[in-house]
Amino acid sequence: ANGISEVRNQLIANATSIDYAARLWQVFHAVIAGALDDMKMLLGDVVAQVMKTIEQHVQSFFVQALQLDTRTLRLEAI
Predict the structure, then answer these.
(1) For residues 22 and 62, is the Cβ–Cβ distance under 8 A?
(2) What is the DSSP string of 24-77?
(3) How many domains does the chain divide into?
(4) Sequence-separated (6 or more) residues with CB below 8 Å from residue 71
(5) Which of 9, 33, 51, 69 is the most exposed place for a label (fewest CB within 10 A)?
(6) Which residue segment(s) compose the domain that 20 sits in?
(7) Which conformational region is residue 67 in: left (phi greater than 0), alpha (psi within -120 to 50 degrees), or beta?
(8) CB–CB of 40/33 below 8 Å?
């Protein structure tokens, strides 16, 4: 029973950390989007591409953090 309890507690801790990171990303997203919006006159259409690239990198991070990427799943299987 102790092993199951430890696994459950670890899962809860991991979920809490990922939830916190996702909420923090929402704040950073708003700050970054606001800063880029202020630079739209200077940078033009590049702003949208920059934001899209940032979002893709963050999405990749969360996929890896949740261990949903193929490489991590393969390593877990070994």
Answers:
(1) yes
(2) HHHHHHHHHHHHHHHTHHHHTTHHHHHHHHHHHHHHHHHHHHTT-SHHHHHHHH
(3) 1
(4) none
(5) 9
(6) 2-77
(7) left
(8) no
62 vs 2 pLDDT, higher one: 62
d(CA 76, CA 9): 20
CA atoms of 68 and 61, how far apart (whole Å) = 10
Overall pTM > 0.85: no
For residue range 28-69, list pLDDT tens digits in order. Answer: 999 999 999 999 999 999 999 999 999 999 988 888 877 766
Residue among 24, 46, 28, 26 at smallest CA distance from 37? 46
